[in-house]
Amino acid sequence: MTTGTDVARFQVGQGASASSRLRAAPDATGPSRLDAVGVSAWFGDNLVLDDVSLSMPAATVTALIGPSGCGKSTFLRILNRMHESVAGAKLAGEVLLNGADIYDAGHRLTDTRKQIGMVFQKPNPFPAMSIADNVTAGLALTGTKVSKGDREDLIEHCLTRAGLWSEVRDRLGTPGSALSGGQQQRLCIARALAVRPRVLLMDEPCSALDPTSTRRIEETIGELCSEVTVVIVTHNMQQAARVSQQAAFFLASQGEPGAIVEHGATKDIFEHPSDPRTADYVNGRFG
Amino acid sequence: MATIQSLPTRPAEADLGPDDGGDRPVAPKPKVRKPRRTPNFTAEDWISLIGSVLSSLAFVTIVYEHILDGSGTIGFGLCWYAAFLVVYAAVVSVVHPRPIVLERLVASTLYLAAALVLFALGSTVFYIFAQGWRALVHVNFFTHDMSGVSPTAPLNQGGILHAIVGTVEEVGIAVAISVPLGIGTAVYLTEVGGRASSLVRTVVEAMTALPEILAGLFVYVLLIVEFGFSKSGMAVSVAMTITMIPIIARAGEVALRVVPSGLREASTALGATHWKTVWGVVLPSARAGLATATILAVARGIGETAIPLIVSGASSFLTFNPLNVPMNSLPLFIYTAYTTHEPLAITRAFGAASVLMVMVLLLFVAIRILVRQKGVRR
Amino acid sequence: MTTVLTPPAPVSGSGKAPRQLRPSREPSDRIFHGTVTGIGLFVLVIIASIGIFLGYQSIPTFRHYGLGFFTQTQWLPELDKIGIAAVLIGTVEVALVAMVVAFPLALMLALFITDYAPKVVKGWLISVVDLMAAVPSIIYGLWAVFLLQPHAIKLSRWLSQHLGWIPIFHVNTDPNAAVWQQSRYTSSVFIAGLAVSMMAIPLACAVMRAVFDQAPLGEREAAMALGGTRLGVARTVVLPFAKGSIIGGTMLALGRALGETAAVLIIISPAYEIKARILEAGTQTTSALIAANFGNATKSQLSALLTAGFVLFLITLIVNSVAAVVIRRSRSGAGTEI
Helix, strand or coil for residue A22? Predict the structure, then answer.
């Protein structure tokens, strides 16, 4: 596990654009593989996920699809240890980041969350901070030191990756809350990218946004998967078909905990599903 | 090809792989694993913490007497805390990065702050009872008043019955007046509103902080000096009402606002007048909150010392008459007994303080019960 | 075949202006509204009356002493030398000491309850803090005199010994004497301030805690998901959100501290001089002045005491009104029920 500052990641070289100037150090980040093995989840005594296993390969976009309430978001939150922040929440199983179980006693909680970032359904920029400060908020929170020049480059880099740079480049000092919904969500994506996570989890990031913003973000997701592994929960099957390479279909019958019915390449799930329930869902017969 | 994981509840469709031909009997539902612990504070962290605590304690113990010439327990505690911070920071920073070090230091400081405040409160309660029990063991303490008994008399003579009765009666009358007025104000603010309501709300908020002595002065000047009434329990009740109304009004307003507007609309849609809606629907729904508001006001009222000091007198005989005669009450008794500086009188003062403390504790148990009931009902 | 609907022509005139609706009030409702409004306005009347009465009673004093009332430090009615200069300073000093102690403790306790305490004890902690607010002032006074003071004066002595070059820590006695004069350190602003802080802490803490709980969950989770510690979440989300209520809650507690009577009354020994030496015995506050002196006050002395009360009334009114406005205007106070 990396400790200390991550300054080494940001090597400022000669170059015209910020992106070319920022080169990741050879040993550090890069998209990583995430494996969930036998994950079960409880809220109090209520079992909500039963023995779910899924492999999310590095540098790909995995979509979690399925009707409401079958545990997709719960599963997602287990992947970055957000599930345990809820009072009474329990889990079983393992989550392996490049083979190492993140729930192991030797792994720091804050390190895990830094390496596995999350974008939420409702955009939540920090309203008291400017746009620039929002982007670097994660650095401040994790005690990562960045020199002033690197900081500006980082802000530009992340906002560009999030598809927001051109719209806010001349008002970086204005409050983060003054943006539109779609812009705020892209700001949240930039903020999540600034700490250089290996995996980015997205919990229905576009469900609260208009179609134009949705399209922008879907473009962003497509460009991101070379830098981070992406796992996205979505209600929107067409969106899943557009952005993901792999998909997993979650289902929970009446009164039963949720589980994965079927998973595989997105194309296969949508065009040749093996399970009739999957076929029903992707053809819009329920959910 | 996609991989299927079977759901346990659909045995007929269990299908364990593409090569499987036909239906197979369902494998038994896999044993649900037990939840795992997710500790953020490992055994190693505990050792760091306890080690830092003990080592800083040892260090300060040795150094304190010599270098800082023993300036009492408070000074010792402060030095220990400072030493602990330094040691703990050093220990944690060996393993963890800076944000975690800061987090641990702040967390331990917060725990200490909470412990300090709780200790202060606990020592208060404990000390009162510890000093007062010698008076409390005598039955006459509760059944007699102090008429004809000098403050230096032994504890098997005299008692605080007059003060207890005085407190109960004064607060009772105050409640009888302030509850209708306070709830009325709350109803005015939530149900009627209007242009003056924001002014009234601001004034009510300002009034909650009115020093009790000013309420006492007001009643003294108005009723006793101007109108010539004599010092009495009634005057105390009136002054208490002035301090209690704002508390009931503010907490009551909150309780009424929490009542869902759907209930009001349902009642109005059925044809009820506004009055009937408030009396029959809104007030009963807010019962627990209004009761809590009243209890909070009572807790304020029974502890007031300056008011009875000014508008009543520290009489030593029992009376049930709220008019014309001075009426003693527990806080006033405590004050006057203390100011004699006689040891036995001070013990009686602590005894009376214990009784007062028990009353406050009972009020709070009542609030806890009410709050829990309200939670369950929702 | 589908049908297209055309709207009918409006009955009344242009049809654009809204209709005037006159709500019909039942007689019982009129009585209800009138009564309740009357009660609400009655509260206004009370506080106005207090202000007016105290102000009216102050007129003779101001006529007699003029503005010298505010500059005279002595309180010697027999010599016709009366002024509240020293008393006001003492009031402010006690309140400030109380707030210096209470503010950090209340803030830390509130943060502890919302973010650090195990969830199972949270409800109990909240009740305990409310209990702390309900304990009568005289009881804290007894605790301070008998239990706290013997320990606190040792701290006072240490402070005057080593930091006595700072004016507020200086005490007019020899702290280095082998047998030091304990009575020079008792009954001081410091001890009174500590007792008053016991009443200020729960008040400020209750306001802060209620607001900390309301910090938006979405922002909290964002800070957590970025890898923030609890401290990081508090600094990034909770404290900025609650800024206004932290200030407002502290000011409310300050207002309470300014008017505190019983505990101060039994702790301090009256001394009428303007001094900054908070560790030294002897001081006076407005409410203690009134409580101690009005028993044997002549008519003119009574007027003077009432004037002091009037000044106290104005000060607490201003402090609490500002506090209420600060809270209501702040982001956190918009829906708060302080």
Answer: strand
Q: Are the beta carbons of C219 and A126 separated by less than 8 Å?
A: yes
- The larger pLDDT score, comparing residue C331 to residue C61, is at C61
C38 pLDDT more than 60: yes
Neighbouring chains of A at 3+ CB pairs under 8 Å are: B, C
- Residue C156 Ramachandran class (φ > 0 left, ψ -120 to 50 alpha, else beta): alpha
Residue among C258, C285, C263, C315 nearest C75 (CA): C285
Residues 70-89 in C contacting B (C-alpha not used; CB under 8 Å): none
Are A113 and C240 a contacting pair at CB < 8 A?
A: no
Separation of CA A219 from chain center: 15
Q: Which residues of A touch C331 (CB under 8 A)?
A: 127
Q: Read off the pLDDT of each residue in A226-236 and give the average, rounded to a whole number.
A: 91
Which residues make Cβ contacts (< 8 Å) with residue C52, sequence separation at least 6?
A: none
Predicted structure pTM score: 0.87
What is the structure's pLDDT at A25? 35
Domains of chain B, first to last: 43-127 (no CATH), 161-377 (1.10.3720.10)
Beta-strand runs (E) in chain A: 11-12, 22-23, 34-43, 46-56, 61-65, 89-97, 100-101, 116-119, 199-203, 229-233, 246-251, 259-265
Contacts (Cβ under 8 Å, ≥6 apart) of C110: C204, C205, C208, C209, C212
Question: What is the DSSP pairing of strand A246-251 with strand A61-65?
Answer: parallel
Which is nearest to C144 in space by CA: C281, C267, C316, C301?
C267
User: What gap in Å lies between CA A177 and CA A131, rounded to an integer?
Assistant: 8
Secondary structure tally for chain A: helices H, strands E: 12, 12
Helices (H) and strands (E) in chain C, counts: 13, 2
List the CATH code of the domain at A27-282: 3.40.50.300
Q: Which residues 6+ apart lie within 8 Å of B122 measured at CB?
A: none
Torsion sign over Cα B239, B243, B246, B250: negative
pLDDT digits (tens, 9 = 90+) for B327-339: 999 999 999 999 9
Q: Judge whether C119 is closer than 8 Å to chain A, CB to CB.
A: yes
Chains contacting C with at least 3 CB pairs below 8 Å? A, B
Domains delineated in chain C? 47-333 (1.10.3720.10)
Q: Which of B71, B117, B275 sits opposite C28 (nearest CB)?
A: B275
Best residue of B101, B117, B338 to probe chain C, by most C CBs closer than 10 Å:
B117
Q: Locate tokens 């603010």: which residue?
A: B189
